[in-house]
Amino acid sequence: MKLYTYVNYGGNCQEAFRFYEQHLGGKITMMMTHGQGPNPNAGPPNWKGAILHARMNIGETELMGADIPNAQPMRSAYLTLIVNSIEEAERIYARLSDGGEIFMPLTETFFASRFGQLRDKFGTSWMILHERPRP
Q1: Domain edge (last residue) among 46, 67, 88
Q2: Distance between CA 31 and CA 57 in Å, rounded?
Q3: For the residues 88-113, what does the mean pLDDT come to?
Q4: Residue 53 sits in a domain of what CATH number?
């Protein structure tokens, strides 16, 4: 069994996935618009270019998403990136927080060399974590 995350966007799924591919080192493995789907005329005409289904690899996991009319930003769930260095945490946090909303600045905590929480400009909530070495 595997558990993946599926994120709904309000029309900017392609932009978000391209951004994550560029700045998180992900790789888009599938991206289909509503117009390319099995029922291209099923939705509103202005949704033909919106994403019906997208999938990408980020690290050791998969992220999936789509454009959904009236999608709301994530509220009670976070995509959590555990990174290998303080520098990587700072770089990723800076890119994801640009144009977004910071919930917790990236800082040192009792459990992490760096930890921060934010919602990016696409409405996706993130935790960035560089863990302290375990004893």
Answers
A1: 67
A2: 12
A3: 97
A4: 3.30.720.100
Residue at 101 is within a domain = yes
**Do 9 and 62 fall within a single domain?**
yes
Residue 40 pLDDT more than 80?
Answer: no
Please state, in angstroms and rounded to a whole number, the distance separating the CA atoms of residues 116 and 105.
5
Please state the pTM of the whole predicted model.
0.90
pLDDT confidence tier of residue 70, bands split at 50, 70 and 90: confident
User: How remote is the C-alpha of 123 from its chain's centroid?
Assistant: 9
Q: How far apart are CA 21 and CA 27, in angstroms?
A: 6
The domain of 48 spans 5-67
39 band by pLDDT with thresholds 50, 70 and 90: confident
CA dist., res. 90 & res. 113, Å (int): 11
Count: domains in the chain: 2
